[in-house]
Amino acid sequence: MSTPATINGKEVFELLRDDLAAIEREFGRDTVAGVEAITEIGEYLRGGGGKRIRPALLLLSAKLFNYQGRGAIRLGAVVEIIHTATLVHDDIIDEAQTRRGRPAANTQWGNSKCVLAGDWLYMQAFKIAVQERNFRILDSLIDLTQQMVEGELLQMEKLGKLISLDEHFDLIYRKTACLFSVCMRVGGILGGATREQEDSLAQYGHDLGMAFQITDDVLDLTASENVLGKPVASDLREGKVTMAVIHALERCAPIERKQIETVLRERTFDGVTHAEVLEILEKYGSLEAANVRALRFAEMARNAICSFPNSEIKRALLWAPEFVVAREK
Fold it and tell me: Is 107 exposed, middle or buried (0-12, 13-18, 19+ CB in 10 A)?
């Protein structure tokens, strides 16, 4: 009897429950510092929750090869700490007021302390990763952090500017998909995957990350503030151009283009409302086009791991792209 193609979310949680709980405990221990402010900020950020999809991917990737060691717990905490550090710095750069329905850390402790706390979290992540004594894992994590920092700088340079779809995809690779890809590769390295298998896992992570971020960008435009846990249309308000906007700008009338450009330039909805921008995006099928591209990346992710033997873990990995594109926040 063949293994069913997918698995539901509840089953995935049960599959990873103990390991994710162990990662959560590890995260708590690893973010305790000799300086009280760092410990407080670390605990506040951990308490904000999150999907923990990145450590879950690392766990699934390692389990695909029946890995049993403690390294997956340790490195699962590492990738979540790196992700958390990026969020701290992002909120400072974006001057964010909220994160996951709570005040952003920088509004509580100020930018200076949060910048340093973010730096400390990065260094702590590498201090833990060194314990694996695996240069290939360290190389992957170093390349990851360089890509993410470069991506943030590139995004800052492009704020308020009209960019191409290729430029946008490069940004979201650096912003999101690179971390998904590295989580999958690191899990494969732990599990003893061949280089070819590693590349397939990394490609899965890349495509899943692209689908995740495109969906995230659409939700930023269409979901409610209560669901998102932050103000709607934050990207436009910050001068960031996302796929649906690029799609519309390539098709809309000059007067409509001017409306969108006004929001990007002024970084406010004072002259042009959010509803007016949404109307333009819907008129040209731009939100649907972005959703279709996210679905395409999700399908590519599933295809990237089709050669692996059927198993409960593979079923969970086949489910993840469906979860990513169907979520509401």
Answer: middle
Provide the Cα torsion 50, 53, 58, 64; round to 10°. 140
How many helices (DSSP H) and strands (DSSP E) are in the chain?
Answer: 17, 2
Partners of 102 in the beta sheet? 99
Does residue 187 contact residue 56 with C-beta atoms inside 8 Å?
A: no
Residue 46 pLDDT: 87
CB 188 within 8 A of CB 201: yes
- CA-nearest of 324, 290, 94, 288 to 205 is 324
- Tally Cβ neighbours within 10 Å of residue 148: 23
- Judged by average pLDDT, the poorest of 45-49, 148-152, 278-282 is 45-49
The angle formed by the CA atoms of residues 129, 47 and 239, to the nearest 5 degrees, is 85
Sign of CA dihedral 256, 257, 260, 262: negative
CA distance 299 to 295: 6
Please name the helix (run of DSSP H) or strand (run of DSSP E) that holds residue 99, with its range, or none: strand 98-99
Distance between CA atoms of 132 and 72, rounded to whole angstroms? 10
Q: What is the pTM of this model?
A: 0.93
219 in Cβ contact with 233 (< 8 Å): no
Q: pLDDT tens across 195-243, in order? A: 999 999 999 999 999 999 999 999 999 988 777 777 789 999 999 999 9
Phi and psi at residue 244, to the nearest 5°: -60, -40
Domain ranges of the chain: 9-326
- Overall CATH class of domain 9-326: mainly alpha
Q: What is the pLDDT of residue 27?
A: 94
